[in-house]
Amino acid sequence: MLAVLIVLFFTLGSFLNVCIYRVPRGESIVFPPSHCPNCNKRLKWYDLIPVLSYIFLKGKCRYCGQKISIRYPIVEILTALGGLLCYLRYGISAQMFISFAIFCILLYISAVDIDTMEISTASVLLLFIARCAQIFLERGVSFNTVLSIFSGMFFSMLLILIIYILSKGGAMGFGDVLLIAAGGAGFTAAQAILANFLAFIFGAVFAVLMMILRNKNIKSEVPFGPYITVALFITMIYGDRILQMYFNYFRA
Question: How many CB atoms sit inside 10 A of residue 3's CB?
Fold first, then answer.
């Protein structure tokens, strides 16, 4: 069963690549069928096997020799890894599939943010809907659950909203505020702090690496969305465990 799930995850990763490329351009994700963006040659099924086709074709189009972006196999591998983490955390359950759907939305948002430096309202709304479904499934439908959704949004976005206002959008985009608010729905105050902490840690580590490897100035414009998405996903599925370890450590 796990093998079937992994194949499914890789396949969905391939579909996610289509969405990442076409949706921001306003293109249909169904028509035309998969084709090389350089020579427009329609791709065969054996050109579309996740990861393996990229390896066998040595990262080039079979028909025109144009290089294929390394992002395609990376997205497929990340999708499979995200699905595996959801499976290990929840087993085969509705919670697993909803968590995996959230992971795919977060990965889509990250990739598009890297490409365009923008986070669409539609993708954030989809994330919020999926997150609400996850919370209602976990806690049931009640006034307290709805209250936790909006309190989590407030706690999660507070810091980034303040940075956005004080910097007048120079340090953070409003899309970042909406992203962490939607993904942080249902978080406790402690989980919201953890998500923010992780996002800034990941961002700082990446900035330092870029300065070392590429000699980039730290003021270079880099999208913050990918760090938020990673932090949100980790907090969603492992936040309770991380916080419990933290509190146990200081009680010892």
Answer: 7
Count Cβ atoms within 10 A of the Cβ of residue 155 and give its class: 0-12 exposed, 13-18 middle, 19 or more buried: buried
What pLDDT, on the 0 to 100 scale, is given for residue 207?
A: 79
Query: Which residue stretches of the chain have pLDDT < 70?
Result: 214-221, 252
* C-alpha–C-alpha distance, residues 134 and 184, integer Å: 12
CA dihedral 119, 120, 125, 127 (to 10 degrees): -40
**What per-residue confidence (pLDDT) applies to 31?**
86
The contacts of residue 238 (CB under 8 Å, 6+ apart) are 89
CA dist 179 to 131, 176, 241, Å?
Answer: 12, 5, 23
Domains of the chain, by residue range, sit at: 1-92, 94-252
Alpha-carbon span 154 to 181, nearest angstrom: 7
Cβ–Cβ < 8 Å for 179, 123? no
CA-to-CA distance for 239 and 247, rounded, in angstroms?
12
> So what's the pLDDT on residue 71?
93
Cα–Cα distance between 171 and 156 in angstroms, integer? 17
User: What one-character-per-residue DSSP string does 111-133 give?
Assistant: HHHHHHS---HHHHHHHHHHHHH
Would you say how long the chain is, in residues? 252
Q: From CA 142, how far away is CA 151, in angstroms rounded?
A: 14
- Asked whether the whole model's pTM tops 0.90, one would answer yes
- Asked whether 247 and 194 are in contact (CB, 8 A), the reply is no
